Each structure stands twice: as structure tokens, then as C-alpha cells.
Amino acid sequence: MIIGATAPPVGAGMRALWAKADIAEHLRGPANSLESVGMEVLFILGPPLVGLLATADPVLTLVVADGCVLVGAIGFATAPLVRRLLGPTTDRSGGPSRRVLSRPVVWLLCVAGLTAAASGAMDVAVVAALRESGSAQSAGLVLLAPAVGSVLGGIGYGLVSTERTPGRRLGLLLLAWMCTLILVAIQTTPWPLALALFLSGIPMAALGVEEFNLLGRANPDPRRIQEVYSWAGSSINVGVSTGSAVCGFVAAHSPQGLALWTPAAAVLVACLPYTVARSSWRRSVSNNSDTATEVLR
């Protein structure tokens, strides 16, 4: 709990940095995709590297891991670009900012938390399903499949331009992910399951990028962009832990194979706030774009 509470919000800071940096709007999507792909690659390479180090010296492993966090956080916080764009003296707009999040932002945070719950549930469901089928030893390789798919999906999504109709692409990604998760749920052997997980990983990174893109565009107060992204990071963390816990309970107390349907159910639930709020954040994005145009004039 202490480690989680003190983890530096570098992810939220990076996305706020792209939003405040002097780059064209159509390049912010690729920037978010590049950041997402970089993080996914680290998630793939980090565990095996730490595992190899742990076989030599577990204590040294903890020291190295904590040192990486410390050096990375200090390096990010002291970078000149970060201090210039995200530092306390960058807000020159004057006047107090509202402390209440707008309704479109809150709905998007709900969608982000529920999709994160699906992601957290997927790992638990796969391990439970493989254990039930007697193939628990293949869990590491099988779980590598969605990560590889996510990397490829993030790279491909970075090549796609920003949509003119906000929110439509998010709905298509939710539908595509739910279909691939249903395909995951009906598999019973490890390697077909790995293939289905690879397919489910392709829209996963794109969903995260699109959620943060929409949060940046729907946020009415540019001075609060870092706070909004920090809320997004918190909702994702809560979603992952909740999805893992719920799926673990389902795996322990429900019939065999039912846990694999938990991720698809979470995405289905995420479609509800998306459907309710779709028109509201389209209006919010349109109004924010008009405001930005007036400011430039």
C-alpha cells in the first residue's frame, strides 16, 4: 500500500506534457501512442529481467528496482522541458480554476476505470483457466501474447490521424475489444487461447490512447490537465485492482471457465457510460475547440 501510494505519477505527467507541448494537435495521438508502446515494452521486458536478477540476489533486486524508480522520477521532474511546462509557474491565465470535474470528464474516467478492470481481470482469468486445464506452466508465454498484440496495436494506432467526430472511434474500439474477449472466453486449450489473447491485445493500447486523447479534448480548463490525467491514472489503478479481485472471486466460487467471461462483461459494462455520455463529450470537445480558436484569435 505504501509503495502504491508513493509511486510517482510519471504516466500522467507524460500525457500532460504532450498536451501542453508546442506540437500540432494531429501529432498528439502519435505521441501518446509512442509513450504507451514504450511503457508496454518495459512491462514485457521488466519482469523477466527482474526475475533473472532475483535468482542471483533477491535483496539486490529490490534495491535495483527502487533505484530505478527514484532515478527515473528525479530525472523526469528535473528535466528542463518538464519544469517549464508542468512547473508551478506555468499557469499565467489568471483567476481561480474550478475544483469540480466536468461531467464529460467524469464519464470518461468511468469508462477508463471499467476498461482497466477488464485488463486486470484478464490476467487472473487466464491463469485460472490454465490451472483448471492442467496447463499452468504455460501461463507466462500465454500472457505474453496480449502484450505483444498491444505493442503492435499501439504502433499502428499512432499512424492514425485524430478523428473529427469525438468518441466514435472509442465506441468502435470497445466493440472490437469485447468481440475479441468473447473469442478468448470460448477457448479451452493454451495455444488457441494465446492467439485469441494476441488479437484482444491489438485494440487494448489503442483504447488507452483514445481515452486519454478524449480526456485532453473534453477537459474545459487547460490549467487542470495534469490533475485530470492523474485522476485517470487513479481510476485505472482502482479498475485493475477491482477487476482482478472480482475475477479471482469468480474463479474461486463459480463453475469452471466462467472467469474467462469476466473481462468481456467488464467491457460490456463500460459501454453503458460510453453510451450515456457520448453526446455530452462531443459537445464538450466542440465547445473547447471553439474556445481555443477564440483564444488564438
Give a verbal description of the structure.
The protein is mostly helical. Helices cover 78% and strands 0% of the residues. It contains eleven helices and no strands. Helix 8 (168-185) packs antiparallel against helix 9 (190-218). The radius of gyration is 20 Å and the shape is globular. The model is unreliable at 89-97 and 290-297 (pLDDT under 50).
Question: What's the helix and strand layout?
Answer:
Blueprint lengths: L1 H4 L4 H11 L7 H29 L1 H21 L1 H7 L16 H30 L6 H20 L9 H18 L4 H29 L6 H29 L8 H35 L1
Helix pairs in contact: 2-3, 2-5, 2-10, 3-4, 3-7, 3-9, 6-9, 6-10, 6-11, 7-9, 8-9, 8-11
In short:
Helices cover 78% and strands 0% of the residues. It has 297 residues and is mainly α.
- Uncertain regions: pLDDT < 50 for 5+ in a row? 89-97, 290-297
In N-to-C order, the SSE pattern is: HHHHHHHHHHH
Rg computed from alpha carbons, rounded to a whole number of angstroms: 20 Å
| Strand content range | under 5%
Q: What helical percentage do the residues reach? A: over 70%
Spatial gap, N to C terminus: 48 Å
Protein structure class: mainly alpha
